[in-house]
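Anyone? Bumping this.
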Amino acid sequence: MANGPANDNLGVLAEALEQACVELMAGYGVRATVQPAENQAHPPGSPMVAAVDFSSHQVRGTVTFRASQSVIAQTARGAAGMTADPQGFLADWTCELTNQLVGRMKSKLRAYDLTFNVNVPRLLAQQNGGELEHGIRYRFVCESGSFSGYLDVLIQPGFLLEHNPSAVDSVAEGELVIL
Amino acid sequence: MAPKKILIIDDSSAVRHQVKGVLAEAGFTTLEAVDGVDGADQIRACADLALVICDVNMPRLGGLEMLETMRDELSSRALPVLMLTTEADPASIARAKSGGARAWMVKPFKDRLLVAAAMKLTAAAQ
């Protein structure tokens, strides 16, 4: 991913996905590093996979989050109030993380005047080592294993994501607003 | 004095567990609902609720739709609602305010801030 503002639709979306993945993990105290394009294969194992569909007039698609169970458990241990053994929550927590990933992407894309409706997350059948086929994907590693963010998207012909610095969210992650 | 009762509406059992853990530590008792339909039923069934904490994006009935459905009832009971969600869309926040929500917090939440919000909103509701 190039530094600086991305200047094409897929570049903007890819940048939002990559940053959202890193920030999602950082929110739970997990430092993640993106892997180079030639090192995208996952180690064998039984990962957790969840997806969220999104849609607007201009774009629609699916964000998929795939992570080793150890990564899911590590984020759960970093979550406020999570006192139970995270093993009992892995599937549900994977869906919640995917939901939060899309929320972060949505916040970033608001700076391009793009907003969309988000469906509820759905757990996908676990993939045994095989790689998912998606348009945009990033694989990351962290202390407890690896995870990936994937994006499939259809963009209305002629639509262009243009940066609008004034179109930003009024509430940041973790912030409270009294209405 | 009996501990104040808070209804947590979220389709994620992990999030409900999180919120319940944080609020229990602060001395609140909690009830749980899995979506807006379940949440509306429990609001109607429980007369002594002090606060509702509600997700936005849920199956069957989302949090904003539930707010709009329950607006008059929530208002007549002066029952405050805190929206706890991954969404930070200004239009959704404005819609929540119009529906009678009193606060909006974006996940992942910080335990101290959630407790502070619960204290403030339940105190104001008395």
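Late reply, but here is one note on the structure posted above: Chain A touches chain B at residues 27-28, 76, 79-84, 89, 92-93, 95-96, 99-100, 102-104, 106-107, 110, 115, 118-120, 169-179 (CB under 8 Å).
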